[in-house]
Amino acid sequence: MTQIGGVQSWCLRVTLPLILAVVLHQSFATVAPPTTVQTTTAPHKDPERPERGIYKVTSSNGTTCLLAYMGLQLNISISSVPQNKTVQDVVNIKPNQTTTSGSCEADTASLLLLIDAGKTNLTFVFSLNSTSNKYYLSEVSLTIALPDMKEPVSFRNRSLDYLRGTLGYSYMCREEQTLSVAPGLSINTFQVQLQPFGVTGDQFGAAEECQLDEDDMLIPIIVGAALAGLVLVVLLAYLIGRKRSHAGYQTI
User: Fold this and answer.
1) What is the pLDDT of residues 3-27, one digit of tens each?
2) What is the mean pLDDT of residues 41-60?
3) What residue stretch is flagged as signal peptide (predicted)?
4) DSSP string of the chain?
5) With contact defined as beta carbons under 8 Å apart, do 99 and 114 qualify?
6) Which of 76, 98, 201, 251 has the least C-beta neighbours within 10 A?
7) Could you give the C-alpha distances from 158 to 102, 167, 202, in angstroms and in order?
């Protein structure tokens, strides 16, 4: 029985650190605090998780050519020289206050969102690589009127590479993502499913999961496999030890 206890102890020493390392890695990956930005403005409470909205763009013949279902949140930080302060704001895009338009071409598709009666103008441009049949978010532009700014502020980046998918398939990511657009602007996306090319009817194509979702699925598999391995090794050690114990009591 001492031998069995030794094997079990060794199994615990080997397996438990592995499980602990995996759990800690996941913990640090998901709850790491965001970078702190110094500001002279009064602190404000962050809004709740944004509501998901369905956004459609139709082609000239009336068929849907771009389809998106997602929650959007704008994170803005801009220096105001006249006011000698940094203005920060977090804005949730509200679908019921948003008007959708856009256009679809052979290798580009745009989604234009006019929010709050035109006070916010947010545009996404997707590009398609005809060689690889891969699409991606290539450009974002934003013009927004902020309460603490006298004039609307604008941001634009034409060299992005986010939300990559395959022609004929939709891109899906359940996890929250932060898309860095330009100095002073990032966009948080929530439970995204989108397809800017190859839409059939008003339905998404088969979904391709993002890397964040795949990583979240992998962690429980690793932990489960480690626990299953531990149980199996302990069971084998017990059976071997029991067999040897019975052999030692045979009649001479």
Assistant:
1) 445 545 544 454 555 555 544 455 4
2) 79
3) 1-29
4) -HHHHHHHHHHHHHHHHHHHHHHHHHHHHHHPPPPP----SPP-PPP-PPPPEEEEEE-TTS-EEEEEEEEEEEEEEEEETTTTEEEEEEEE--GGGEEEEEEE-SSEEEEEEEETTTTEEEEEEEEEETTTTEEEEEEEEEEE--TT-SS-EEEEES---EEEEETTSEEEE-S-EEEEEETTEEEEEEEEEEESS--BTTB--SEEE-HHHHHHHHHHHHHHHHHHHHHHHHHHHHHHHHHHHHHHT---
5) yes
6) 251
7) 17, 21, 28
Query: Alpha carbon of 175 to those of 149, 190, 225, 250: distances in Å?
Result: 32, 6, 24, 62
Asked whether 190 and 50 are in contact (CB, 8 A), the reply is yes
CATH number for 44-205 (one of 3.90.1150.10, 3.30.540.10, 1.10.10.10, 2.40.160.110): it is 2.40.160.110
Beta bridge partners of 64: 58
Distance CA 204, CA 170 (A): 6
**How are beta strands 85-92 and 64-80 bridged, if at all?**
antiparallel
- Residue type, position 146, single letter: L
HEC string of 175-194 equals CCEEEEEECCEEEEEEEEEE
Q: Which two tokens stand for residue 64?
A: 């849907």
Q: What is the pLDDT of residues 196-249, one digit of tens each?
A: 999 998 899 999 999 875 544 444 544 455 565 566 666 666 667 766 666 555
Which residues share a beta bridge with 76?
Answer: 89, 185
